[in-house]
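REQUEST ID: PR-0412
SUBMITTED BY: lab tech R.K.
PRIORITY: routine
TASK: structure prediction, single protein chain
INPUT:
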Amino acid sequence: MIEDAMTTASVPQPRPKPMAMSIRYRRYALTMLFLVYMLNFVDRQIVNILAEPIKRELGLADWQLGSLTGLSFAIFYATLALPIARWAERSDRVRIVALSAITWSLFTAVCGVAQNFTQLFLARVGVGAGEAGCTPASQSLISDYTTRETRASALAFFSMGIPAGSLVGMVVGGLIADSLGWRASFALVGVPGIILGLLAYFTLPEPRKSSFAASEAQSAPALREALGELGRNRTYIWLTVAMAAMSFGIYSNLAFQSSHFLRNHTEGLGALAVRLNNLTGIQLGPTGFLGTVLGLIVGICGAAGTWLGGWSTDRAVMRSNLTAYATIPAAAALCMPFALFATYTTSNTVAALCLMGLPMMLQSIYYGPIFAAVQSLVRPRTRATATALFLFFANLIGLGLGPLSVGLTSDHLARSMGSGDAIRWALISTSLVYLLAAAAFMVARRTIRRDIVS
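STATUS: complete
OUTPUT:
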């Protein structure tokens, strides 16, 4: 199979075909990676629904909550992703994914025994260190399992682990917190990841066991060569800017949307919880009710947006419209500030929860297109490194600084307004970063046809 370099300066070179697998086995492999990624986000995002109980028990400020949901995780997640990706270019990627899942799950359970901010911060650092190996190795595997024409859909299916994990984390975390407390939530959600990591280790296929793929792994470029390849790719650079801006907005929103509702819709949530309890006989407090509802909104609407982005992009690519990798995410990003403004300024609790579905769908549309574009912008032997470097900036800037900046802004605004209004306007002001993301996507659109090579 000949690699389409899409540039007159490139010489076509042979590239490995997708791994020879039965349809059933390929579906199993993709499903297993999806489940691992889902637990990745369960363990990563569960702290968001538990933020208020943690804040009360440990006496934390909003900036400390922001660091727990972002900076503590991002420090090692971002810095370890690149060396682990370099390992993944040459080694067994299945083993890396499995060991990562077991590691982050153990540290998630450790979060439940933390007695102060420092201990919880360090445990979250451990979660980030464990999760650093998951995405680059998984996306590299998926790219070997599939063709370019189906890559966006496959990576969109994998990325559904983000909303699905957020759903499970919020629902399960909220329900357990209501009945057993926030510490039990951390302990119980850590167990499935250990089991799934072992299952992945013994059942997932590694395409590099074929002779051609093995030779590709052995000839993986040196770090300087890989960085040079990425640094010369203008589209890759602008997509990295777009990803960092999107991550800044998304993680800021996810980290504090529960706090916004619990502070600004306390009475409305309480009334809705009582009404639901009377109808079903289930006894939910405001936190459990909010976790369930937000989890369903994030999960269902996020999954719909992720599927829509991957499906529509693959259809466009089949018609040779490669610019869809950038234009579809750009359109969604442009609408985000307006959707969030409407959501956070609405005083009616039911209306606010319903409106939240739109930004949750819009913010998920870009996952499939942008990850598929990154995998297609580099040679197969550089894919894990490209993903790791891509996520390095996205997580360091977006996950590390996004929630922290919202927390700092909220603490500052709280001096002149109540904590409810402070968190509301901190979130609204942060949403303007989506306009930067839309602009970066449109700049990337200009060169994407030329830069796609695999």
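NOTES: The chain is about 80% helix and 0% strand.
REVIEWED BY: pending
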